[in-house]
Amino acid sequence: MSQLSSTDTPTEEAEIATDTVREAMLEQLSAELGDALVGSHLEPGIDLTIRVTADAWAQTAEFLKNGMGFAYFSFVSAIDWLPSPFGRDMDSQVDLALEGADPKEAEEMIWGLAGGETRFQVFARVNDIVGHRALTIKADVPADTLTVPSWVGTYAGANWHEREAWEMFGINFEGHPGLRHIYLPGEFEGNPMRKDFPLLARRVKPWPGIVDVEAMPGSDDEEDETDAGGSND
Amino acid sequence: MTDISDRQQLGYIASQAADARLNLELETEGMTLNIGPQHPATHGTLRIIAKLDGEQVIAADPVMGYMHRGYEKLTEVRTYPQVTSLINRIDWLGSFANEVPFILAAEQLMEVEAPPRAQWIRTILFEMSRIANVVLFLGDMAVQVGAVTPVFFAFRDREHILNQIESATGGRFHPNFDRIGGLKDDLPAGWVAETKQVMKKMRGFCDEIETLVMGNEIFQKRTRGIGVIPPDVGLQYGLSGANIRGSGVDWDVRRDNPNGLVYDQVDWKVWTHPDGDSFSRFWVRLQEVREATKIVDQLLDTIPAGPIMAKVPRIIKVTAGEAYVETENPLGVMGYYVISKGDLVPYRVKIRSASFNNMSITPWLLKGVYVPDIVTILGSLYFILGDIDR
Amino acid sequence: MSLLAELSYWQQTSLRVVGGLAGVLLVAGTLVYLHLFKMVSFMQSRLGPMEAGPFGSLQLLAEVGKHLQKEDIFPRKADKFVFAAAPFVILASTFLLVVVVPAGPDAWFINNDVGIYLGMAVSSVSVIGILMAGWGSANKYSLLGGLRATGQLIAYELPLILAVVGVVIQAGTMNMQGIVIAQAEGEIFGWGGIGNPYILTQGVAFMIFMIAMQAELTQAPFDMPIAESELVSGYMTEYSGMRFLLFFIGEFATAGVFASVASVLFLGGWWAPIPGLEWDDNTWNLLGPIVLITKIVILTFIVFWVRFTFPRFREDQLQRLAWKFLIPIALANIVVTAIFKVWI
After folding, report:
1. N or C terminus of chain A: which is more exposed, having fewer CB within 10 Å?
2. pLDDT tens digits, B260-291
3. Is this prediction's ipTM beyond 0.90?
4. Where are the beta strands (DSSP E) in B102-167?
5. What domains can you pick out in chain B, each with its CATH number?
6. Domain map of chain C by residue range?
7. Between chains, do B238 and A213 touch, taking CB under 8 Å as contact?
8. Does the CB of B3 have a partner CB in chain A at under 8 Å?
């Protein structure tokens, strides 16, 4: 039975030690990808995020899997950085659009870690289960074609994830064996996860706000009972 | 991991043989069998369109979405504390475990750390929800191969766990107990001693299942060498949990990256099995329940005193940034990629659920098997529909 | 013979029909209550039905009432006649089988010199019913279930019959009554203290008979034709209401009837070695049915115990078990029995 069990090592890696690991990862990646690596963000002891160009999206996967030992595929998905044209639903207790207020000015797009240039980004995560490393890879999706290369050739498991991203965000994956609906019915129109796709439930019934803020255990409950119901800030 | 056992070799052979069959001109017309969305083997509403030649599956195409609830969209219009009540429903058998990675991600963004007592109780409840979940699998797997009695034992003994979860959290299925910065409440009086008794019962249940189901020759005949997943294929598809450990891959997020849970404080073991077939997945899960009871026992002994909530603002606005936290949930690795813009609500939450990845291997895995084996393979992969469709 | 001889033919016939119906239905009801409702509930740590009647004993009647009220649904594309007739064909096979089983020196339906041969012949009629149900339902699951059942029942008829052959050689008759008498008067190597129940001298044949019987009844571990976790309910998928009830009763009635055949062949039928009891036809006419039913309950207990404990085989594994394992052993048993019969 002993060969079935693993070694019983509590891998208490020091937080600082992983830093050098991530820096080495970043160095290796920038050496391989060169100009295709357009952004990176390293949070010491926590995570590494890199951003590559859309053209290098598949090549990055190939290198990560075969060159760096990131054999484990975690997920592929997308982000829509467009601020919601419906305003921030949580701001008011009544639907401002229904009340006749002016539509909000389109806000500036603010990108997250490792920066960005286009409205849509695809992002993915892979793990190296031997070295216990992982990283997030992002890529800007060209606004005109909305197409990035598919990862299916490298990680077979990307198949369903790319179908989901295609369905939810409308991003095409070049080289995918069959982009068809995975969750929604075949005749569904639109891409629900886009920020400009209205969440109808919120349109027909305004958000109640953060009423019912529960008392924190161990804190004095009296002091700010009054402003618990108010959420307009 | 590099050596491939004979059984794992079988996985390749079965798949290639089915491909070869596909390429042949078939003399007979195949039959398309529509399994689901209402079918006992689909644990809900999964649908599998299987092309059959006789009773052999030539191609299988799972169709999901009958339970798609759009949680990723819904989280964008809910405050952080409200999100937990939604994501409770992802894997409804081990609900508490769904909350933990999301809360941990939010805590990571806010740079808050839960006090030690909260971390301990979190880990205890996390492992108890694993037991509550996997115990049902152990009984249900027997149903999938045709023995109806063990599942009643599973329900009987799962009741003890649910009672403990209820008395601690107030909810049997959906505790909604985890808070950013700690927990909602402290443990009730006498809970520790009762839970220890329950853990003893669960170990008894494991022994019972081991002799009643796993030792049964017919069960072994039905599961050994069936649905073999070679490790490299499993990694490519992102399988996790017992599915990948059943293929001999020694990887457990609990050990390798505890992420704010206190697994490094206890003495436990990650079990793997080299075969990669349905039986090994069952075997690994059985051992995991045993390990979980041990973990809970040890944590109950060492649980520190102190507060259960860190200082957090009353109305929670999470610092802008991005965080990805994954934990080893009952079904496998579950992670939340939380993007915050400093608002009351998350900007985007990507839910990386274990079952979605675990199921994505089925078109590859079901090629060339017989109709009865579809059921054992799906059973041994162990998915929860809410975890696939989200 | 004394009572029946005074009745005219139609009276005798009606008596036997009523007796047969009661013999099948009452026994089936008892088995459902004892085994399905109570024994299995006990095994699965639950109570089972408790509301209808004392300890739920009238639950089956309530079920019958419920099923009679339900709509009798025909799938649109079903072959209506075949679909409707299938449950009756299966039930007919059960009722035909029960007529060969004697319940006492005079309590028999037919006393035929080829009784067991007739019994085996009519028992295989149920295959046709199952195939009809599978085909007529116009449902792929039902079709798969029906075909599996056919393959399985044909495979297991053989070991069943070969197991019987050993008994027939030893008893020297195919008359069911004769087999009972042979066991009552038999001796085991010269010792006749308890007669010779063939379970002792034909133990191998008994095991094979019980295994094949389990397969004939399509009970777990051989329940692939029904296989609720994969084929939903196989050939029964599309049935509802009254016709489903017929299948349900048929399942348990057939279990009882096969158990009665097994108890006649191997356990001495209506006869039991009761010490101090003088042989008297009338005594045994009264005691016989009770003894027989006791044996049926014991044998069906084993059947349902196995059914609710074991997982099910796969179809190819089942065929392998029948052809490579059971049939050779049954053949060897016949040879050994013949050698003993001729030289010893």
Report:
1. N
2. 788 888 888 888 888 888 889 999 999 999 99
3. no
4. none
5. 71-202+251-351 (1.10.645.10)
6. 2-343
7. no
8. no
